[in-house]
Amino acid sequence: MGRRSTPGAIDPRVGGTSTEPALADEAVIEVDWPSGSIAVHGSPWESDAFAVGHLVTEGHVPSFRAIRSVTVEPEDGRVSVRVEAARGRGPRIVRRDNVTLNSARRSLGRSIPPGERRIEPEDLLSLARFLAERERDMRAAGPLHWAVLYDPASGEAILASDLSRHSAMDKVVGKALLSDVPVAGRILYSTGRLGEEMAAKAVRVGAGALATRSVAFRPAVDLARAHGLVLVGRLLPGGFLPYAGPALFLRRSRRTRR
Which of 17, 166, 194, 240 has the most CB within a 10 Å radius? Predict the structure, then answer.
């Protein structure tokens, strides 16, 4: 698949001193594909990854293989992204927000069967230690949300940031897909709260677990339990709060917090 990406994947441009707070750039990100278009306010970097990740995690395309090319055209205060992809079924989607209404209630597609997941409590604590080592740099980048795709087997991770926690999650998935890095079975992490739509994104891409340093809402917990997704909150090197997962996993994670 051919992809043309002009410098729309702009690096975070923030700055600050002890007397001046760090400020993050904001722009209107417009994404257009054969079956719809969206316009959201977000961070004007890695827009190609955002577009790819958003279309896949929201179920607007059947899979990453349906995307043929991505073209990014940055402008002053605006980034336009054109995605060539197989046309989806149903009416054309046009919206101007970060989350499609009732997106979590649409078809979630295929997900990895719960028996294939191999996420253990120690995998999540390993991610927590990884994040703790990078917390200073992440905070220095300014008032941004971060998302991480973590492979506990290798300790390798992909990070992405955005003003929106939803867009940060879309970006990290898109970065992985554009780099031919598998998402299925790995841990997705967000610095923000986890609602039903965030859990739906994780299920759609077959993530092995979804974690946050914050908390999850009841609809997200219900969705995770229904689809066998490990879901945890308050993730720190010393432990975490388990919301959903196998019974053995929950018992072991409670002992971990002592």
Answer: 194
Q: Which of 84, 10, 75 is nearest to 47 (CA)?
A: 10
For 18-30, give the DSSP string: SSS--B---EEEE
DSSP string of 89-153? SSSPEEE-SSS-TTGGGS-------GGG----HHHHHHHHHHHHHHHHHHHHT-S-EEEEEEETT
Alpha carbon distance, N-terminus to C-terminus of the chain: 50
CATH code (residue 92):
3.10.20
The reply to whether 121 and 247 lie within a common domain is yes
Rounded Cα gap, residues 29 and 80, in angstroms: 6
Q: How many of the other CB atoms lie within 10 Å of CB of 73?
A: 14
* The pLDDT of residue 89: 57
CATH of the domain at 233: 3.40.140.10
Angle among Cα 170, 174, 175 to the nearest 5 degrees reads 120
Expressed as residue numbers, the domain containing 190 is: 116-256
Residue 22 has pLDDT above 90, yes or no: no
* Model confidence pLDDT, tens digit, residues 52-65: 999 999 999 989 99
Distances (CA, A) of 12 to 42, 47, 106, 140: 11, 12, 33, 11
Q: What are phi and psi of 86, to 5 degrees?
A: -60, 135
Answer yes or no: is 69 within a domain.
Answer: yes
Same domain, 32 and 155: no
227 in a domain, yes or no? yes
Strand locations in 191-253, DSSP E? 209-212, 230-236, 239-244
Higher pLDDT, 109 or 59: 59
Q: Which pLDDT does position 154 carry in this prediction?
A: 94
